[in-house]
Design goal:
This protein is 44% helix and 23% strand. It has 215 residues and is an alpha+beta fold. α5 runs antiparallel to α6. The model has no long low-confidence stretch (mean pLDDT 85).
Length: 215
Amino acid sequence: MGVVSVSTDTIEELKVTIDAKVAKLAEDPLSCAEGMYQFCIDNKFGSGFNEKSGVKHFKVLEDNLMNGEKIHMTYIGMHDYQSTTKHDGNYAYAITNKRIMFGQKTMTGEKFKAVDHEKINDISFETGMLFGFITIDTPQEKIKVALDKDSAKSINNHIHQVLDALKSKTNEAQPQAVSAPISIADELKKFKELFDMGVITEDEFNAKKKQLLDI
């Protein structure tokens, strides 16, 4: 068996790649597939998958992150569940500050889709004999995800907590509407109407007119 020669440049490139990956993982663990998978393990957000397949699924999400997009939570579940024998297998899911992402690494390629928060009509939850189910309702489709029954409720609660927090943050960031200034003419008209109705006296009306006209 021959010896494979690895150049110094190749080794240095590998070191740079690894160092960049480690730095990225330290700065924002959920920005890398490994960190997304570890989040699921730490929080028990899914079951029935191993690290190798889990990281591969999350790598699909990592590769499709947009600029400025930040992941707030991840989980794994059986996608488009209809029965124990009819579903699309395990998918990786992530809730970001922009959308819900889901993807799967397959033998022949990969599958990926995302739904913007504003296009989600509802996210509902129910439990069955074996699984818990989260249904994502969008204008185009309803996506039913089967989850480990023991963790399904906590996953659902966390999803809604994240979405509520993001919604509150968006509302706070929106500029408050500024009321248009009331003109002197409008003010005079208002007090003239009050005078004509007998609500205020002529002296009160004249005093207010002088105040508004600064005379």
